[in-house]
C-alpha cells in the first residue's frame, strides 16, 4: 500500500490542523478554542493475563477528550497499532461527531494493543474482561460517565463481555446495561446497531445526492444508481455500506480492498459473495470473478465515482493524494485522509464527506441503545398495536368505500398489509438514524453553500460542531 508519509503530521496533529482551519473562521473567546481542542485526560492501563501457562502483559488506553456533556462516548479498538496519539485523535473526533449529530455525549475513545487474530475466543474473553475490569474500577466504563462501543477489531461479543464484567462489579446498579453499547440483542442491545454505521454511510450519500448542487460540485450527476464505488475494508462498516448501496440504491461495487490485496471488476462485485469468501478463506485472495491485485492500496487510485475508505486512518496521504481519481470520497473510517492529503484533494476539487459526519450512524444508534437501556423498555412496545388499531379504522373505512364503488376502485392487498403494520424497533431505529443523518447533513450544507470562506464540507462540519460545544461551555461555564 502506498503509505509513504513524508513530513506527515501524526493522526492527532492532523485532526488539530483541521480543527484549526475551522476555528480560524470563528470568533471564539480567547482560551476557549484551546480548551475545546485539547484532550482532557488519557489513561494508560497495563495489566497481566495468564495465558498458555505464561503471564502476558497488555497495554490499553482510554482517552477522554471533552466532558462538556456526560457520559462521554467512544469505541474500543483492538489492534496491534493502537497508541496514545491515535486514541486521542479518535476521542477528539468523537466530541465533534456527537455534537454534530446531537447525541448528548462528550468524546472518548479506547484501545488495546493486541492482534485479536492471535488468540482464541476463550483467551480473548479473559483479556477483554480484565481490560474492562481495569477501566471500570476507574469509572472509565460507567453508564453515566463513560460508555464504550465497538470499533475496529471489536463487536457485539466483546461488548457483551464488557457489560457482564461491569454488572458483576456493580451488582446493585439497575442501569448497568447502559455501561456499554453495541451489545447483542439478547444482552440489552438494540435492533439495527450492527448495521448502523454502514447504514449511516448510505443515508449520508442519499442526502448528498438529494441536492443536485452538491452532486454537481463533485462533477457528478444523477443518483446513486449505477455509480461505481470502491470500498476499502469489508469489515463491519465497509460491508454494510457496500451491501446496502448495491442492494438498495443500484450502485456498482467495482473494487474491494482488504488486508491481503484488492479485488476489481468493472462490471461489479457481489458484496455478499466476497464477504462469504473472506469468512471462509481469511482474505480476498483467490476470489473468482475479479482481478486480484496484491498491492491493495493501489486500487484506491483506480477510476470510480465514489471512494469509501472504511478501514484505517492515514490511507490517503501525501504519497497518493494527487493520484486519487474519485471525485467523491466518503470517510466511513475515522481519519482516512491526512491533513496534507485533504489540502491536495481540496485543490483538485474532490468533494469529501468528512468522517465526523459520515460514520456518525454508529454513535447515533448507540445513543438509542443507551436510552433503551435506561428506560428499560424496547422502542415501540407501547405504541405498536395501538398504531395498528388506528390504521385498522382507516382500512375499515376504505373497505366500506371499496364496497360502495364496486369495480371503479379497490384497495390492493399490498397496501393494506403495509399500512396496517405498526413500526417495530428496527424500523424506528432506521427512521431515527435517517432523520439524524439528514438533519446533520443539512446543517453542514447550509454553511457550505452560504459562506464564501467555507470551501469544504469538513470545515462546515467543524463549524457546526465547535459552535455547539462552545455554546455548551458558555451555558454552564468551564
Ligand atoms: P472492522 O474490524 O469490523 O473492519 C475493518 C476491516 O478493514 C476488516 O475487514 C479488515 O480486514 C480491514 N483492513 C484492516 N487493515 C486493512 C488494510 N491495511 N487494508 C485494507 N483493509 C484492511 O472495523 P470497523 O468497525 O468496520 O471499523 C472500520 C473503521 O470505521 C475504523 O476507522 C473505525 O474507527 C470506523 N468506525 C467504526 C464504527 C463502528 O460502529 N464499528 C463506527 C464509527 C467509525
From TrEMBL:
Alphabetically ordered keywords of this record: NAD, Nucleotide-binding, Oxidoreductase
Residues of the signal peptide: none
Pfam family, one: ELFV_dehydrog
InterPro entries: Aminoacid_DH-like_N_sf (IPR046346), Glu/Leu/Phe/Val/Trp_DH (IPR006095), Glu/Leu/Phe/Val/Trp_DH_C (IPR006096), Glu/Leu/Phe/Val/Trp_DH_dimer (IPR006097), Glu_DH (IPR014362), NAD(P)-bd_dom_sf (IPR036291), NAD_bind_Glu_DH (IPR033922)
Binding, substrate: 73, 97, 366
Glutamate/phenylalanine/leucine/valine/L-tryptophan dehydrogenase C-terminal domain location: 190-477
CDD domains associated with the record: NAD_bind_1_Glu_DH
Positions contributing to NAD(+) binding: 197, 236
Site keyed Important for catalysis: positions: 151
Residues annotated as catalytic: 109 (proton donor)
GO BP field: L-glutamate catabolic process
Example GO molecular function: glutamate dehydrogenase (NAD+) activity
Record flagged with keyword Protein transport: no
Family: Belongs to the Glu/Leu/Phe/Val dehydrogenases family.
Descriptive protein name: Glutamate dehydrogenase
